[in-house]
Amino acid sequence: MTSLGFCALLLLMISGLRQVSCSRQTFTNTALLDAHGKYHLRWRYDERTIVFEAEVETTGYIGFGLSPSGSMAHSDMMIGGVENGKPYVQDFYTGTNREVHLDHRQDYHLEYAIENNTHTILCFSRDLNTCDMDDKIITESTVRVIWAYHSDDFKNVHNYHGLNRGRKSLRLLNPQHHQDALESFPFFEIKNPNITIPFKDTTYYCQIFMLPELKRKHHIIRIEPLIQKGHENLIHHILLYQCDSNLNESEVGMGHECYHPNMPDSFLTCESVFFAWAIGGQSFSYPDHVGLSIGTSNDPLYVMMEVHYDNPTFQEGLTDSSGLRLFYTSELRQFDAGVLETGVWVSLYHIIPPGVSEYLSEGHCTKECLQEVLDHEMPLGINVFAVLLHSHLAGRSLRTRHFRNGKELQLLAYDDEFDFNFQEFQYLKEERRVLSGDHLITECKYNTIDRKNVTWGGLSTRDEMCLSYLLYYPRIDLSRCESLPDQIQQLTFIGVKEIYSPVTAWPFIIKSPKKYRNLTFTDAMDTFKWSKKKGLAFNKFVLQQPINVRCSKHNQEEWPQVGQDCCPLSFILFYVRMTCEQGLTTV
């Protein structure tokens, strides 16, 4: 008998035992699946196999599944438990109508099980790829785990679990990083002071904060989200921007709606992303050799926190005090971390037609930009160690591609099952060196099959974005490396011949042909009679058009050879909320 088999037998013989030292200590990943602390999942994996341990507050059966959408339909499922001292595990799958079928191939395997008077612990394993069409292949993409449990043991498919069920998105194969014990480390918090959230669909709220005054350099080593209880679905993202160190201290604590005509001018100096967190994300710990530098003359003294509130049901009377907790240390690490925003420049010029099941957008961080910056700043290149892929509700699949000398390298990051409600940094299995002359492409695939109007690039979660946030070291003077298709060329697809010039309104007005005269370009795009065929043709057309490139320093200036400004600052200030290509990119 193997040691694992002996351990399983021993566990079944010992009444009431719940700590399993011979196996449980080897699990490297853990997640709480329900809101009441009754369903704990632990797992570990290697190149071929994944092993799960479910600890659930029940003496009945435990259900576990992998779903393409988070629902029961087309799911790969396991049902198991301990009945009269005998453990059982069975492999099931579901069809389109959620009917449950016993899988003819039993690919979930029992490792051990134990049950006491209140809990059941079930350990089971399977291959990452079972070569069974009724099983889901487990990859580095997001996995929608579905779970259930019942007070009775499993009898048949009609033994329904009732309300004891749910779903949780996880990245099962995301490498885990060592996390220091934080009790001995100082921290500071950046939180909104119980602000009132406006009665509307989308609100971006910004406030300026002063970082701790330190006499010498320190490193931030971990950042935790502080989401007010009950607001988990209200807070779509939190961004920290580095501000001009010459700000007046009287502006600290100043809060206002972002991207608003009346927002303080000082907000415009806060342009370089310092850290990013998005919905569903957990705490982030920097690798042992990397930290986020604070306390020197080159580091930010002031930061602006931007919180995106997503309130599609127009709830009234909401107040919020969410924010971030940042742990830091005086024991310096070897390298300073940086954040680079790449992808599609956030703008109304990012156009996605309705009625298309798969529309591809590309954002380029060009070889010209990376060559100019890295030759000047870091000739040996930078090392990427984590990536946050970001899109909105229409996003289905995102990836960051990496090219060198015309040849594609291994994907930098990908998520082929993107979940809008679960966005967090992916640690790379191995750090990736980005060299002078490399070319990065952020690709996003969208599904607009259920939409009647054009989807625009913009701030609302009903608008779209296509971004990759790269965490890297050593830090260089590059904040954004992005691109955007040429707008005039895009308009020629629907037959636009001329716009009014000079441009005095946003969105700008079309002059000809007659059927579009005096319409904004957004209205003209929505007036066009889109079909699936025309949407796909537009996609092919856009991908062949010239692009405008953004190659921005931390102080908002562009690198001279490749950076392109879009419009004068006065125009930006007046139409800032319309998200002209004004450089106020947000997630």
Automatic annotation (TrEMBL):
The compartments listed are: Endoplasmic reticulum membrane
Spell out the Pfam families in the cross-references. Answer: Cu2_monoox_C, Cu2_monooxygen, DOMON
Q: Which Gene Ontology terms of cellular component type are present? A: endoplasmic reticulum membrane; extracellular space; secretory granule membrane
Signal sequence interval, chain numbering: 1-22
Its Gene Ontology molecular function terms?
Answer: copper ion binding; dopamine beta-monooxygenase activity
Q: Where are the transmembrane segments?
A: none
Tell me, which GO biological process terms does this entry list? dopamine catabolic process; norepinephrine biosynthetic process; octopamine biosynthetic process
Q: How does it sit in the membrane?
A: Single-pass type I membrane protein
Query: Where is it mostly found?
Result: endoplasmic reticulum
- Where does the record place the DOMON domain? 37-150
Superkingdom is Eukaryota
Alphabetical UniProt keywords:
Copper, Disulfide bond, Endoplasmic reticulum, Glycoprotein, Membrane, Metal-binding, Monooxygenase, Oxidoreductase, Signal, Transmembrane, Transmembrane helix
Cofactor(s) of this protein: Cu(2+)
Q: Does the keyword Nucleus apply?
A: no
Q: Which family does it belong to?
A: Belongs to the copper type II ascorbate-dependent monooxygenase family.
Question: How is this protein named in the record?
Answer: Monooxygenase, DBH-like 1
Species name: Erpetoichthys calabaricus
